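Example record

The entry below shows one chain as it appears in the dataset: sequence first, then structure tokens.
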Amino acid sequence: MHLQPHLTRPGQISRHEISRRGLLKAAGTAAGAVGVAVALPAAPAAAVGYAHPGLLHTGADLTRMAAKVKAGAAPYTAGYARLTANRHAQSGWTANPQATVYRGSGSPQNYTILYNDLHAAYQNGLRFHVSGESAYADTAVAILNAWSAKLTSLEGSADRFLAAGLYGYQAANAAELVRDHAGFELERFQKMLTTVFSPLSESFLVKHNDAVVTNYWPNWDLTAMACVLATGIFCDDGAKVEQAVEYFKNGSGLGAVKKAIPVVHDDGLAEWLEAGRDQGHALLGVGLMGTFCEMAWNQGIDLYGHDDSRFLKGAQYVAKWSLGGDVTYTANTRAKGAINGWSGRETAADAAAVDPAMTRPIWAMIANHYTKRRGLSAPYLTRIAAKAAPEGGGGDYGPNSGGYDQLGFGTLAFTRDRSTTSAGGSPTGPSPSMDSPSPSPSASGAAGSGAAASGGSAAPSASAAPTGAEAAAAKSGGLASTGSTDLVAWTATTGLTALAGGLLLLRRRGRTRDGAEGRAAGGAE
């Protein structure tokens, strides 16, 4: 079965979700009214047509950005200044396409070329819509056409799945900004997405690289989910959209919403599983889930409000924790290893140490959805979004891969006026305890005591780790490899000082990380 999207005019998006049987439920479109769900037969793939532009940005969003910047309105002007100052956002950027992109150990890694080019295409496309100057669109088109004419495969260790997921969703979003611009090779780009990027992501969601399903932390699933959803929307493929949305709700891996956010506490906050790993990866996961929800929302599919706004509760938790507040963490043990191969277990006992200076450009999108579109109180999100503003993008958060995991520029792109309708979601809001934490959401209250790190020593303790040939296979990209061996010095907006402070804090807490388990500062793994 395939999903027929519910298309509405901006500001009038009604609830639209897919059932486990693939049936369509469309809510009433009257502004502020509670619709009556009606089950309809799914349409064949040929009839599926999604709203374009309609991934992270709708036509109304792009119009709003341009109008606000032209009017000199804050904070849009500050957000736009960050965009125009970025070296990737300059017309004339020359692409360097590769036939094969490698990410991970055991290969001549060249994936940095791909993500730099994709961020240049995205930033030029965004700058075109705000400024109206065609030179930026022409640059984005030239970059994207060059890659679709040459790229044929993604290779490497297990990290090839990260490359497919991260750069697949980013490529689709960059192309969505110029899909109707003169000279853009739309069909060729769609072919690249559906033959190079999406197949790896779809395979990962089903087979998990032939590892046990919990071997990979949530952000692995989330990158794959984002790629499949973005590809489905960009290519008007309802089956891919349905696969991604169904996985969000009921997937077997840790990226499914109830597994990534496993426990809802009485205070209305819901713990983020990867908070037991480290701060950088928890921030990555929140950003990816927000990206996923935003792309779905722009096609009338409300995942922000799914399961009593579970994502809001999880994002509030990570925001409070990242601000230095105390949070509750339930110890969890996950199975690791390869199917019919080595096996082990790893326990995260408490929330990890945090560096309150560490940030990613993820908060404006999430905070504006819940507080402006839905009119809900989300004090931790509000505080951390204000602290991170104005958000930059790829190239503003360090030179390595972690600084390019999100497209960014949320202050410009997602700041919005408070909605006067209740469009787009479930009529039931979150619990009052989540909306009104005690004490009041002030610097001295809601987030706890200043920069004090929450929780205790949270270093996961591995048992029955692979040894000998099995360990070698894992580290060289074998079945259960959990990431590349390079250490990525991903920096916060405050630069190297914040990074050094974060690493020092982790060192003082006695946290360690082996080569297979990843990046101390939170690159994608």
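Notes for this example: The longest strand covers residues 332-337. Residues 73 and 447 are 29 Å apart (CA to CA).
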